[in-house]
Description:
68% helix, 0% strand
Amino acid sequence: MTSAQVDKEYGGDGTAGGPTGGSAPEEGYERGLGSRQVQMIAIGGAIGVGLFMGAGANIAKAGPSIILMYALAGVVIFFIMRALGELLLYRPVSGSFAEYAREFLGPFFGFATGWTYWLMWVVTGMAELTAAAIYIHFWFPQIPQWVSALVFLVVLFGVNLISVKIFGEVEFWFSMIKVTAIIGMIVIGLGVLTLGFSDAGDTAAASNLWAHDGIFPNGIGSSLMTLQGVMFAYLAVELVGVTAGESENPEKTLPKAINTLPWRIIVFYVGALTVILAVVKWTEFSAGASPFVHAFEKMGIPLAASIVNFVVLTAALSSCNSGMYSTGRMLRDLAANSEAPKLFGRLNSRKTPAFGITVSVALMGIGVVLNYIVPEKAFGYVTSVATAAGIWTWMMILLSHIRYRRGVRAGRLPASSFPAPGGSVFSWVAVGFLALVTCLIAYDEDARISLYVGAVWAVGLLIGWQLLKRRAPRATAGDPAREYASAE
């Protein structure tokens, strides 16, 4: 059963065989995300805790060259998003990555992609809860990390259960805060550089980008080793694809959201980090501290540092909020294809997949436990696992796009109204880049744990697939990949 047939099994009212509802009868969701919300979700997806929190450790390892690493990774992310955009306009569905993998690579890859993307967001939710707890610690050091993490988990859970409109509105304002703060920081930083005001005015200079042992102070190898952390910063840009089934006008809003991605990367990553590293020399940054907060403290503006801390707190909560949203939708897509229990396919009266969200949030609670047991290492552990799961998802998007392009060239599939530039060439380039990042993760002793977890996860998926084949042979039958593989 495909997601297009989901309401034959799961009605729009959340009961089996019930009537469909809303303007999306093929999936039963309410198309409650307007253009401004989708645009801001896309913008906010490119600004997360990986930039606000993880950039500190990356700067300490790579120095000013971290700017080049974010720019390089950003180019590859744009290739991935244009590949996804072409698929989305070919067939916009919620749970898109799993659907496309299922159609172009085979049933198992749809099954594996759906569950892996779900795992990515559960783990990312743990990372964001950890980061949010650390930011609260900035103001209230007496509050244990695990207490803050638990409070945020419960509040965001309530937001996601109400309706997609509430989710979209909360995410809109979270993203607005992040965007406004980064632009403000860039403006203030440029003022420090050009006018020389504040405590950092005497030492702030563009020469800080190369004066302290060069652009690659620790060597190119050390810079490349930051790529796995850099890629974590870009997790969630693909969330636009998950919103396809609940967007009011996906044919209009999705291409616009994807095409503005390069500007978001230039401004929010390359621009912001360039200004920060010009104002404060790279040797003053360290892991575990936000470079944005440190930069304002260096300028002698304590109130501004608190404001930035509030902003990075909203960034973490925004990402966790998005995670809860996407996990419920992905589980519903899996249930629609008989790859997850039927309970995950049901919508509540507000047309949200409440059961899937509830189970996902319960597992995110493991992050609260990690903050209790190993608060100083919790963030690093979960980000490495999330990155590995994200790389799998991006790989599936790219390989599905390559197969889709083969089908179009052979005349077996209709062309998308939003073709990726260069056809599948840039998709192959991106595949090679992701393979390189995977090798770097294997080489990094601290990040290697993600591959161990990935191996265990892969074994679990294979076992689950074999059990599924025995219980639901029709759901696992067929291999559409063969049809497209022969079309050159």
